[in-house]
Amino acid sequence: MSRLRPRDLGSEVLAGLLQRPGRSALTMLGTVLGIGAFVAIVGLSQTASGQIGKQFNALGATQVIVNDSGAAHSQQPTLDFPADASARAGRIHGVIGSGVWWQVPLARAAVTSLPGGSQGGLGLPVTAVSPGLLTASGARLASGVLLNQFYETRRQDVAVIGRTAAAQLHISNLQNTPAIFIGGQAFTVVGIIAADPRLAQLNFGVAIPASVALHLWGPPSAAGAAQMLIHTRLGAARVVAAQAPVAIRPDDPRLLSAAAPPDLAHLQHSVTTNLNSLFLALAGISLVVGAVGIANTTLVAVLERAGEIGLRRALGARPRHIGIQFLAESTALGLFGGLVGASLGVAAVLVVTIEHHWTALLDPRIVLAAPVAGAVIGLLAGIYPALRASAMEPVEALRQ
Amino acid sequence: MTVAAGAPPVIRLSGVGYTYQGPPPVRALLPMDLAIFSGEHVAIMGPSGSGKSTLLNLIGLLDRPTAGRIEINGMDMGAASERTRAAVRAREIGFVFQAFHLLPHRTAVENVMLAQIYSDVPRHRRRAEAEAALAQVGLARRAYALPTALSGGERQRVAIARALVNHPSLLLCDEPTGNLDSATTGEIADLLAALHDGGATLLVITHNPIVAGRAARRIAIRDGRLVDGADAGPGRREGGRGAFVT
Fold first, then answer.
1. Cβ(B114)–Cβ(B89) under 8 Å?
2. What is the ipTM of this complex?
3. Where are the domains of chain B?
4. Looking at CA atoms only, how far is residue A398 from chain B in angstroms?
């Protein structure tokens, strides 16, 4: 009985691949790109999801917004948050900090760096904030101080401005106690905010004490009703949201409505699932292209190596030996392509995560499965060429 | 080398014919009988298209006859499975082709070792036996050269070593000097004669009178029919089908 032992098969496959190393490398390229893209996409997707998750956990899951729903339905400007609203909210278990804010109802271009009214002014948003708000929102100072209880109680005409607004107002530092004019009223700039992760308008606008805003321009309009931002401990947001209206306005809690944070785990899962589906579809297309490449090249190799096939048959190879050899060659191409592709994919994930100072997240099962997937692709791609090779008549093959 | 009296033939053809199916069908070989005994050196000569390569393919079990019966060492190959025929090719038959059919990226010794894979020679014995086969054909010093670094005659010697390495019952040579110059042709003819003297059974298909002249028994084939030749061997002509039988 003629035989082809596994060790001999391995030697013949290796020799077959190495006798044309350039072609083998090019044939693998499709699988390398497909598997590499697959691993990189999944890795980057998982890593990015982790970053999104971090943001969600740090901000969304620890934040409650209380709306002045009474004012929103009122015909005239009103403020339903009591002056000690932050102190009342602070008594709820799980609250770290809180503050009230609203958009001051001013004409456009009310903010100027020179006296002279609103003519030639900038359309910067002006926000009235209670003392605890900037701490609760996580505002980071570039220089100066935040608005505090002193400014609120003494109704000081001071302002804290965002870094973008500072640039527009040509204020680079606070050494000379610069002033700005809001609706013609002078305000001393006491602080510049570098970034506020929760209230984006503070990055490019102006914040003034709530008491000053009430004194100068009255309570907020129905369209721009006041809101309270409550920073909670992780996991306490939903409970705080349920208790806040009663704690702040026990006399008429219906005037306030608290927005519970969304189910962030579900939201995150939804976002990442959609992204993964899209990216995996693209990677799948790459893999199909890789498989077609292997099938095509293997088929060409079968036709080119007809003489070798005829010789092997003359030397005692059975049709199945020929088929198995070509199938093993295409499988090996897929396996090697998968190994190289997985390595490149992991490298790509590492490069991107290092560049962005992220934490790389990559399921090790994906990395381990990638070469197997490459081998399966090579196996499937090699079936037809292998059948063609095994069906070749030795006499015909020897003539070519 | 003498043929042992009363020994069974290595090859026996009984009424073997071959028709290419076409369309249209072409009768390449008319039914014929032929016996080749162990230790014989037989040359089959004939013009192109006479059917000699078809005959060699049938004897070498690379194709199946459309009529008749082929026996190798007494075993009927017509009814044998492809598995059995492949095993017989691996162990009992050594092929030498006009085009050498060497794998260009493998050394001479690796090309010889290729024949040992399918005949299941243990791996630890292969290299030594392949080197011995190369030494037998005078290529011991060129064992690790690639075919591209060998002359035409040396390549054919590698092919002969590959055919010999499994010690087959029959060496089938298809125009072994067809791609060689006259000087090298003489060398290969001498080598084949020396192998015969060493005990090998040879069936050589050739156009070349030098190669055919070394054979003890020469058979002519024309239009798919064995015809009268310079038969110097143990076979005798038997009427009816233009055949040589024992």
1. no
2. 0.88
3. 39-62+90-232
4. 8
